[in-house]
Amino acid sequence: MLDKTAQRTESLRDWIGGPNRHLHGRDSSVALGELVRGTSLGGRLPDLADRSVLIATGDQLTAALALIELDGVARRMILCPPDISAAHLPRVIADADVDAVVTSGQIDAAGELGVRLHVVCHPAIAPMAMLSAERRDTEWLMFTSGTSGAPKMVVHTLAGLTGAIKRDATHETPVVWATFYDIRRYGGLQIFFRALIDGASLVLSSADEPVGDHLARLGARGVTHISGTPSHWRRVLMSPQARAMAPAYVRLSGEIADQTVLDNLAAMYPQARVGHAYASTEAGVGFDVNDGRAGFPASLIGRLPSGVELKVEDGTLRMRSNRTALHYIGPGAPALAADDGFVDTGDLVELRDGRYYFIGRRNGVINVGGLKVNPEEVEAVINRHPQVRMSLVRARKNPITGALVVADVVLRAEAGPAQVDALTGEILQLCRDDLPKHKVPAAIRVVPSLAVAASGKLARQSA
Amino acid sequence: MTTKLTILAEMRKVAEEQAKKLAPLSDDLVLLDSGLDSLCFAVLVARLEDKLGLDPFTAADDVAFPVTLGDFVKVYDRAA
């Protein structure tokens, strides 16, 4: 059987040695070597030992520094993605038993979060003696998109999170990794680990940086390996600065990589290996596809040399490995894996000519440029309009962001065309007031009725 | 209306809806400098599919990603 606990031997600090390695933020850089005998936490690491620490920094660089220092010391680290709603935090703090918060000083943790131990993380490293305390296995808690709108947390170990990463010793020149992801999301975190394990530097993204400036910065730092979602890459392909960098490896993940984006990247970066990867926050890293084609060969079904096992059941991809998350957290949390240890990824696949292609999500979750949208959450907002009887939110395929959110709405009473225009305007306004912009329907269609399945639930299209 | 005029009209509409400030529209305008973000372009391409009955980016695998507004219009003209 798979043993998920007995393989932990290292912590992040073991991977920061070596000369000329940096974490590059947009405005400042940190030499990783300084952290070997230094602190970004003002020397307060001993206070955080054995605690459940919420990492809620305003930027990626300080989050990275806090992770390096706290891994092996804290009991738990809860890594907050940048867009987590403040309304969800009290439940996160309760469910994860949080008793300390690390921020970059942007919030008053005691006042706003009610957590008394608050440590501020700075990109200026101060010297510190090595912590003599014994290393422990730190639990890594990541957020995943649940089905009901509220974020769910899954528990990982460092060994599980990094199990798929093999140090690549074949590089003749120093490796410089970069990712368009935020490293506080699963896809970005994987690249953070890769950079550390590869002995490389890492160039971080910054949310509001113009694409052209970002590409110029990636070029100036000599980026050799870089990852992003297909949506990130489409933005790059639309930039006159795309050739400001000349990567040797281009990686896509987090969304369905279609043939168009793969071909365009191969043409833009003829010197680069272009590959797409499959992973999920729950199921962990699955596999890489490096043949330049969308989808994956059916021959991957079964047991891979990496130890990952794949199968397709009821149309969705299932994965079993020692890199899947351990379990969900919080009261009433569902089981993560089936009895046989396989995690249902919820990703629907279709077999065509010996190759599987991803066609969408079974539970209706919509992936807009790598950001997940739960239809029920949007429907709940739409249904608040007094004239709406019911609504169905679904995905519409899109070549720029992979998918867009659209809504079908049944009104309580028949309405003329002018009335329909006014009502859809009001419904959209409701959505804009209450939802992040990627969740706001791009189109609202008034329909006479919606199909209801035998279960009494709305019939959701599977893709 | 020509394809180009339809595209320009829809760009203005999307910018207004998404509260974006649109740069002056010329053929050599770099799309990423237009004031529209990825989500705006996604909405624009969907609207144009409804108006023109055509999504040239999905219809063919070998379409190149447009950099300027002129490129963008050309992709539609060529596919029409």
Note down, in words, how this protein is organized.
The complex is a heterodimer of chains A (463) and B (80). Chain A has eleven helices and 28 strands. With 463 residues, chain A is an alpha/beta fold. Chain A has two domains: 335 residues, Rossmann fold; 81 residues, GMP Synthetase, Chain A, domain 3, CATH 3.30.300.30. Chain A has an eight-stranded mixed beta sheet with strand order 2-1-12-11-13-14-15-16. In chain A, strands 7-6-4-5-9-10-21 form a seven-stranded mixed beta sheet. A six-stranded antiparallel beta sheet of chain A has the order 17-23-22-20-19-18, with no helix packed on it. In chain A, α4 links the parallel β6 and β7. In chain A, α8 crosses α9. Chain B is mainly alpha-helical. Chain B has one domain: ACP-like (Non-ribosomal Peptide Synthetase Peptidyl Carrier Protein, Chain A), CATH 1.10.1200.10. Helices cover 56% and strands 0% of the residues of chain B. In chain B, α1 packs across α2. Chain B is globular. Chain B starts with a helix and ends with a helix. The chains are: A alpha/beta (463), B mainly alpha (80). The interface between A and B is medium-sized, with 29 and 25 residues.
Offer a concise description of the structure.
Chain A is an alpha/beta fold and 463 residues long. Chain A has helices at 45-48, 60-70, 89-95, 109-113, 158-162, 186-197, 211-220, 230-237, 259-268, 375-382, 417-434, and strands at residues 22-24, 29-31, 38-39, 52-55, 76-79, 100-103, 118-120, 126-127, 139-144, 152-156, 176-179, 201-203, 225-228, 249-252, 273-280, 284-289, 296-297, 302-303, 309-313, 316-320, 327-329, 343-352, 355-361, 366-368, 371-373, 388-398, 402-411, 443-446. Chain A has two domains: 12-346, Rossmann fold (3-Layer(aba) Sandwich), CATH 3.40.50; 366-446, ANL, C-terminal domain (GMP Synthetase, Chain A, domain 3).
